[in-house]
Amino acid sequence: MQSWIVLRRGSRGNSRGRAKSVRTMDIGRVMHRRARIIGHGSVDAGGLRVTVQLRSETAGRSRRMCESAGAPVPGRVTWSRKWTIAPARPSPPEPGHQFAAMVDRVRDYAIFLIDPEGRIASWNPAAEAMKGYSAAEIIGQPLDVLYTDAQRKAGAPQHNLRAAREEGTYVEESWRRRKDGQLFWALIEIISIVEPGGVHTGFCKITRDLTHRKRLHDALEQEMERTAGTLQAIGDAVVSTDAEGRISFANAKAQSLSGRSLNDLFDVGIHELLVFGDGETPPLAVLFEQLCQGQVFSEHFPVLLRKHDGSTMAVDGVAAPVRALDGRFAGCVVVFRDATTSRENLRALAHQATHDDMTGLVNRAEFDKRLARSVMRAQQSATASALIYIDLDGFKAVNDSGGHAAGDELLRRLARIFAEHIRERDTLARIGGDEFALIIDGCSHEVADRVADAIRSATEDFAINQDGREYQVGASVGVTLIVAGDTAEEALGRADRACYTAKAQGGNRVHHPRMH
């Protein structure tokens, strides 16, 4: 690239200084009409200090002059003068040059030259279209005109040129100003131009308008912020993973439930956070595959949340795969909530549906279901079960004299006494106001009679005190066996009739008719 260099010779005696211009391809070899200058130098007060050799082509004699901070250099010095070489300026490529044609044809990039003082030296058509200034308007203007007022006050133009000069190039994205005052988002690169020999001749600046991309990016960022805000605000825990099952996001609820911060959860395998209810931790690939099939986990597919302190929590939720726009699998998202309270409530509701509110024993509806299962087992295995029917003697008198409070307390306490005489797997139910029934699976005549008499005896020995009065009841007990060929109605009918017989015989006794 050619440059113009101005040589200014200082005065000697009464002679006036003169300015000469030379055109050069190489600062180290400058040709003039009558002189050849060879050498290098350093910038000094806006000029260059160089060691030069001047040969007069007309006089045929040589003079060696130097200016090196006032110190002589080796060699014969006939006389010396002060020569100052003004900074070289970048020149645009000559019209028709291939590089000039390429720069002019570029449409997406503004490309122009800047001299060392920061003035614009060239201007391609794309720069005119992007920034609104014609070449005639802008060439010779300071670079500052392309910056916003705030950027000028902050010294951004000078900072950017200085950074490019020191580092060789400077790149940034920021707002720039058009001629009409409108702003656009630009990617800019400023490149320092250094000629062979080390002389800095200016800068080349390349700008691309990225306003559309900036708006899309800002819109996407705002949408992501809204989404993140929504995820943070909802009451359920939300965790997302990458394609390898590593956690990449966890909202505030997930952090709260697990007792871990986002930093603690980030990049942790999802299998370290969620485990199956049986306590075994499957390989990540196994769990991840199940989760990404849209798995719903609940009491029927139990999943536990492993907390920071090592404890676990039952959770309900759902997992679903996440796919990229091209259909590639990109991970999964898991939404879950603490199921402790809900499951306790469900169990309480289920218990209420199957148990008597007052005594806590199995109610009539649940008893009928269990009796049907016992009948079915007797059909399938030919193993007999015992069915015991209990009717309290004198309970009406307790209610009439002591009131319902006394009667209710008596029923509650008798229920606990009856339960002491049976196995945990046996079924004890309250099937009427003062009537109870007991199913003992896999039971013989002898065992059934022994249990029935123990219940009768415990009832006889029991009494309660209410308002200074003592209340006591007896128990009429009927016993039968459930055998193959029975129906539930038949078995219950026999036990009921046996109980009626015991009561008809005076009560407080066990009646067990033998079956033929």
Quick take:
The protein is α+β, with helices and mostly antiparallel strands.
Describe the structure.
Pfam families: GGDEF, PAS, PAS_9. It is a single chain. By secondary structure, the chain is α+β, with helices and mostly antiparallel strands. 33% of the residues lie in helices and 31% in strands. The chain is built from 14 helices and 27 strands. The strands form six sheets. Strands 14, 15, 16, 17, 18, 19 and 20 form a seven-stranded antiparallel sheet that branches. Strands 1, 2, 3, 4, 8 and 9 form a six-stranded antiparallel sheet that branches. Strand 22 (427-430) and strand 23 (435-440) form a beta hairpin.
- Euclidean distance between termini CA atoms: 124 Å
From the spread of the alpha carbons, the general shape counts as rod-shaped
Estimated helix fraction? 25-40%
What is the beta-strand fraction?
Answer: 25-35%
Q: How many strands in all?
A: 27
Main beta sheet, described?
A: 7 strands, antiparallel
- Mean pLDDT score: 79
Give the structural class: alpha+beta
Could you tell me the radius of gyration in angstroms?
Answer: 50 Å
Number of helices: 14
Which regions are unreliable across 5 or more consecutive residues at pLDDT < 50?
1-87
InterPro entries: Biofilm_reg_signaling, GGDEF_dom, Nucleotide_cyclase, PAS, PAS-assoc_C, PAS-like_dom_sf, PAS_fold, Rev_trsase/Diguanyl_cyclase
Pfam families: GGDEF (PF00990), PAS (PF00989), PAS_9 (PF13426)
Enzyme class: transferase
Organism: Lysobacter korlensis
